[in-house]
Here is the input.
Amino acid sequence: MGLSLTNYVYETKLSRLYDDLIHRDESITALMEQNGLKNPRTARKIFVDMYGCLPKEIQKRHRQQRGRSN
Here is the structure.
């Protein structure tokens, strides 16, 4: 795979976080905790590496899209 076990675990958890950011209206901190992300700084850094933006940007973008579709 080319990933260390730690990076694989983070990427798996961050993938679930991304899905939660799109579909749930809870705080990012709560969603990180629910997905087992104990170090927010590291989680944000890897999230940006994976998705090219911060979790709050994903959440904001999808909230706006949901608001337009209602």
Remarks:
- The radius of gyration is 12 Å.
